[in-house]
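User: For a benchmark we're assembling, each entry needs the component sequences followed by a predicted structure for the full assembly. Here are entry 17's components. Please fill in the structure.
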Amino acid sequence: MTRFDMMLTNALLATPKGNRARAGSVQGAVSILEDAVIGINGDTIAYAGPPLEGAASDRTVSCAGRLVTPGLVDAHTHLVFGGWRQHELRQKIAGASYLEILQSGGGILSTVKSTRAISLDELARKTAAHLGGMFRHGTTTAECKSGYGLDDETEAKQLEAAAMNDGRPVDVVRTFMGAHAVPPEYSNDRQGYLRLLTETILPGIAKENLAEFCDVFCETGVFSVQESLVILRKARELGLGLKAHVDEIDPVGGAEMAAEAGCVSAEHLIAASDEGIAALAGAGVIAVLLPLTSLYLGKPFARARAMIDAGVPVAVATDFNPGSCPCPNLQLAMNFACTGLRMTPEEALTAVTLNAAAAVGRADSIGSVEKGKKADLVIWTAADLESLFYKFGMNQADSVIKSGTLYIVREETVKQKWS
Ligand SMILES: [Zn+2]
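Assistant: Structure for entry 17:
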């Protein structure tokens, strides 16, 4: 007789398998098992497979044939920020571009102002609320970038606010992104800001262990390929993993830069060239695609099919941030991974689980439902995998299991308050 702390029965289990990113034709190699049983001990998956003779648990959940997947991993967010940017909506409707809004003092720089002004505690509370929304939609791990401080103190404050929320209940992976924009006080001294970043802020972040990764915004009008390489090389020297926002607006050779620098992931990639895609494939860099940002900005979707055909492992994330994607719902990104990026449901599932886990350096512990991995799972209201990707605009998460604890997240029946 096998006893588990918790056991799910009669699940339609859909999961990629393995401990690393899946590329090319195996990106969509998802295992689908009807009438599956998942046994959990502590915070770890002890069994996942067909019904097990003699298995029992005091905490047995019948999934009634509904879909169960790994907990979702949101591999690209900017979730720690002060303020919002609702006032930019009218500028966007009038046709202003991202760079035009930035040049008029809005965009990132307006968020920098609010993030510098907010206290650490208030910032941590605001972050907790965002993570709560993500969790209710099935996200169990979220990457979180700094980059709204652009000074020593505020960059550290952002990463501390993220750390204060780690594991409550969403696990947070921290990325330092001081190279998100040049702050206004250095607008006439780019070299001065680059020196500040590489000689003071980055070493401080590394010394205090405030981040696992370093990211740069390599784009026309932001940081050049050469500047990005200098920053990323310094980060590597200091022991950080590397990521880069590249080729979002123009094909400036950012994907090639990310491959050359040895980045774990290259993100956005809307304008990536064929050469850039080949370079990513050659270096095994994970493409983190952000279809909600394309949708929100009215931009083309990244060429996911070309990337998958070239053998680039593709992950999909929200890009949750107060400017180009004020939406923390990864389910919506999954819908547009299919209809916008033209990925199959199986490829898209891998993109928000195992490949996303690999993009944040966690593929050995999360991203699939397999023995030995962390017990992070979602029980969906969806009856099958296609339904999960087909329906959109409503929350299809029923329950989320995070580190072995079950949370019911489904929307409750409407209750009348006054009559
Ligand atoms: Zn971003």
